[in-house]
Amino acid sequence: MIPDPPVSLWPDPEALGPVTDLYQLTMMAGYIAIGRDRDRASFELFIRRLPKNRVYLVFAGLEQAIGDLLRLRFSSEQVEEIRRWPIFRTIAPPFFEALEAFRFEGDVWSVPEGTVVFPGETLLRVEADLPHAQLVETFLLSSLGYPTLVASKAARIVGAAAGRPVYDFGARRGHGPHAGFLAARSSYIAGFAGTSHVEAARRLGIPAFGTMAHSWVQAFVTEAEAFEAFAQVFPGATMLLVDTYDTLAGVRQAAAIEPAVRAIRLDSGDPLELSYRSRAILDELGRHEVKIFASGDLDEFEIARLVRHEAPIDAFGVGTELITSKDAPALSLVYKLVELNGVGRIKLSPSKRTYPMAKQVFRSRDATGRFAGDHVTCADESAEGEPLLVPVVREGKLVAPLPGLDAIRDHCRAQLESLPNRLREPEAEPDYAISYSDALEAEADRLGLH
Amino acid sequence: MIPDPPVSLWPDPEALGPVTDLYQLTMMAGYIAIGRDRDRASFELFIRRLPKNRVYLVFAGLEQAIGDLLRLRFSSEQVEEIRRWPIFRTIAPPFFEALEAFRFEGDVWSVPEGTVVFPGETLLRVEADLPHAQLVETFLLSSLGYPTLVASKAARIVGAAAGRPVYDFGARRGHGPHAGFLAARSSYIAGFAGTSHVEAARRLGIPAFGTMAHSWVQAFVTEAEAFEAFAQVFPGATMLLVDTYDTLAGVRQAAAIEPAVRAIRLDSGDPLELSYRSRAILDELGRHEVKIFASGDLDEFEIARLVRHEAPIDAFGVGTELITSKDAPALSLVYKLVELNGVGRIKLSPSKRTYPMAKQVFRSRDATGRFAGDHVTCADESAEGEPLLVPVVREGKLVAPLPGLDAIRDHCRAQLESLPNRLREPEAEPDYAISYSDALEAEADRLGLH
């Protein structure tokens, strides 16, 4: 008898409720047991510290987070199984009924997706009944942190490329097979020109980009034969990978192919030297129109070096460094209770302090339109500048349709163009002013923050 | 009118075919177009280099990878959309028909999940028709690389904890909401005692672990009130987080609670000093049975330091460092064509060389049963030691049921116990011998590798 394949371990998108930490459920059970489940809570999401090498961040992941939040459910089967866990043996039926009946019915305010943001300022606020606002913590953090990490890394890479298109090649190096999809979307928001990820391209309308692997070349007796075959199958879209055996010989080989190749790809060795030598060979053979594409362990520092030395490279492919945000693979994104039944709440743990009260963030610009500083206030204060947080969900329903991917990308481009020059270089140091209103400082003082 | 929530961006587990790089499809189209689609190919998966701080790796993710591989399909809708992409405009119908008809019908050999492995040795081999063996590359790399990274990091952490239980708290810091599930499974294989991830615990039968967040304490007027309420709701399972305001005052508070608490959790500050001082307070108050649990940015180096100083900590929770494999967030896992129609193939790109031919790996042990070295041979050679690669899939069907999670975990424990002592410390240097058979070297010479 042939064994069945292992069951799928993908989540059911209609039953994502238990994609959370157990303590969210124990606290929910607790609040229900002591009759605190209709307390009204405000939780805020913010970043504690800039990751290594970052001087600003690009907020991303909101569309998927909100969609999943509004669909968040527990199936009967999930609830029945959780009910049997020893930790819940003292818990009365109303908790389990509440899980089965769960729908997110609170409000969400958020900074729009694609916005440039900084640590210490509120990015998103959930206002809901205490157990519901608490329950969604893990889900929101895991849905928003990674896209924000990737979009922030991607913005640096796009900046370093100085106008040359950059493509996402990260799918194989993602933390699991879903990360590639999220990274394709996040990097496109931050200005990448396209992705190699077929499903992301198909579902999100991102330009798909792909050429050939070394294995194509290896599958033929000679490199020339491999190149000829590819050019016959994809006339007009022929991009040849030239480094399977000897890179410069590969360039000569590619230049000789008919119908004419569009581009060559360099994937190993020093791209600065190889791009100059490849360009010289192509030009010498009259192939001025053939473009040079570089990939292989590139990051923003290497791309900036290539651009500084005017390497004749027309486009870049970035994989590992983008999709793992390799120099800074974690973001200190947190979600904290700031207000309960209209009263400010804080936490005092060493180096983990938070400001109380529901907040708004106002961004000022200088005379040239560049970002000049952010001012954090209580939600009901007004101040100069543009308020960053806007209502997204009210009583569990979208306030307005969320922007499409291209609108998010346009917003992000405008945001990045408004960055002060001092924050633009890969080597820039953190230097952006965040201030807090007098009312917020007074409330913090009152609760013992200072 | 209330807008609909954004559509789900989760993948359809029954249509994961396009979760791949575009070049896998262009090459498949190419092989079909030139009549090479029935060539028989062997591709092998291996690790090029040890990541930073790692001296061995734990192979993980096989069960999910194989399950998804055997379910890999393209829906009609996906194929119809891909067909309209400009790059495929010169491609004849047989390619699109092949996508719609795609089923993985090849063979897979693999090292069992939970096995200790090293760079430069074959971990998995796919033997199939050339376009099919090629197509699954991206999927296999993204399905196996991340679990292997996490299991490898987890094994180091478990080793450093020297018998104290360690729990996975990483869900919120994963690269997207699915990474937490994969990390819970991978860390459990490598010896973690449980996870905070509810859905991973439920579906995989991993012990679930959870306490309370700071927000629970903040939701009450006093810490004492917060602790009392929790103890009433969870008598017998009360673990109290003591660092919301003042850690040592929190410990005194916790010690006074009735019914008696089981444990306290320290989540900030220096866990070495705080654990000693907390233990002293608990003992002074006669609460000898109350355990101390530590969490908060722990990694294997910090845990080793705490263990070395005999910190009175009974268990650890590890989040960010585990789930992002923060010191080494990427693995140089690759999938290379090694044999085509019975003939060896290689790639010569600088620093990316591969050995040709389908291979087997034989592992020797010393007189005490510890791993003494691995010997890589052609698949049809025999050698001393235990052959690591076993048949898993034959003609698209499982050869035998895959082991369950506890069996994988037991296998992993036995593997880790067989590591030479010199590879066990967090600061160990790479030092393990991999050799290649004369036949393999001769074949490599013939193809120009040396």
Q: Topology of this protein?
A:
The structure is a homodimer of 450-residue chains.
Chain A: H1 22-33, E1 40-47, E2 57-58, H2 62-71, H3 76-83, H4 93-100, E3 107-110, E4 116-117, E5 124-129, H5 130-135, H6 137-161, E6 166-168, H7 179-189, E7 194-195, H8 198-204, H9 214-218, H10 223-233, E8 239-241, H11 247-255, E9 263-266, H12 271-284, E10 291-294, H13 300-308, E11 315-318, H14 320-323, E12 333-340, E13 343-344, E14 359-365, E15 371-378, E16 386-387, E17 390-394, E18 397-398, H15 405-417, E19 434-436, H16 438-446
Parallel strand pairs in A: 6-7, 6-11, 8-9, 9-10, 10-11, 15-19
Antiparallel strand pairs in A: 1-5, 1-12, 2-4, 3-5, 3-17, 12-13, 14-15, 14-16, 17-18
Essential attributes:
36% helix, alpha/beta, 6-stranded parallel beta sheet, 7-stranded antiparallel beta sheet, 450 residues, TIM Barrel, homodimer, 2 domains, nicotinate phosphoribosyltransferase
Mean pLDDT of chain A: 95
**CATH fold-type name of the largest domain in chain A:** nicotinate phosphoribosyltransferase
**Pair of chains with the largest interface and how many residues each contributes:** A-B, 132 and 131 residues
Strand residue content of chain A: 15-25%
Oligomer: homodimer
Protein structure class of chain A: alpha/beta
Number of domains of chain A: 2
Helix proportion of chain A: 25-40%
Radius of gyration of chain A (CA) equals 26 Å
Helices of chain A, by number, come to 16
